[in-house]
């Protein structure tokens, strides 16, 4: 079902691209951040753009695991960087879908797990799962790490969380989830806690923290260098002040479609997280809540690139659990109508984001 959802979206995108005379492959591999990742894979770090308004865009803002995997693929296989980037992204998206299914099956059963995967593949921004972007990679590692936590495989949980932390800045969310889960288990077991719990808590943040420290050392400011790089991109944590200004502009001024859609999607994410908290019957375990909550906090509390917020929330698949449970219990006809509507929205809006929207994805 996940493959069918994404292939349908790709088909719509390719047909429209051919209709207007644009290259589908260029759209998939040369859209916004994809260019930065493929350049890092080919040439390493060291590219910086300076703008007249004072913004400084350095490629040090991009975490290394994805371009590293792309480079590894081009080294082993006779593929171009663009093709390798898509191969890594699509393989990661498939792995993420499988991991989400495993987690959903453990929490709510097979039917709900299947619906959960389908909903994730039909999100309005799910076109990103088909691009040369890092969200599929983060989601795959994070979902497998959460599954490892719930099944008591602590060394796997910590190691996968470390890899997720090397994938994206918001990969810190899964490290936080593993650390909180390990701390809770240590508190329950006290003197009888196994050493694997301690190891998981130590290893989980190493990926994210290691890259942040490396950027700091490279820029001459070990603790603040990475955050200075992000500030050059106008990206900072301001407790949502910048987002509120953007919401005000959406309410008071004519805007592109992506801006009100962003406000709507983020609002829906907040409401879904509230449903996760208040639903005692279907409330997921603590690490799942922490993971989704930290991702939501970063998206809502972080400033800059307002229209990218739904993309930042793509890895927050646990937020879809209330919808998956509701569709599982709904009448088949009602569920089919809802899923069909979501599929239409996903295909059309994804095509709009790549073909028409003027702001960064």
UniProtKB/TrEMBL annotation:
GO terms for biological process: GPI anchor biosynthetic process. Pathway: Glycolipid biosynthesis; glycosylphosphatidylinositol-anchor biosynthesis. The chain crosses the membrane at residues 84-103, 115-134, 154-183, 195-217, 257-276, 288-306, 312-328, 335-355. It is found in: Endoplasmic reticulum membrane. One of its GO terms (cellular component) is membrane. It holds the Pfam family Mannosyl_trans2. Keywords: Endoplasmic reticulum, Glycosyltransferase, GPI-anchor biosynthesis, Membrane, Transferase, Transmembrane, Transmembrane helix. GO terms for molecular function: alpha-1,6-mannosyltransferase activity; GPI mannosyltransferase activity. InterPro entries: PIG-V/Gpi18. It is a multi-pass membrane protein. It comes from the Bacteria. This is Uncharacterized protein.
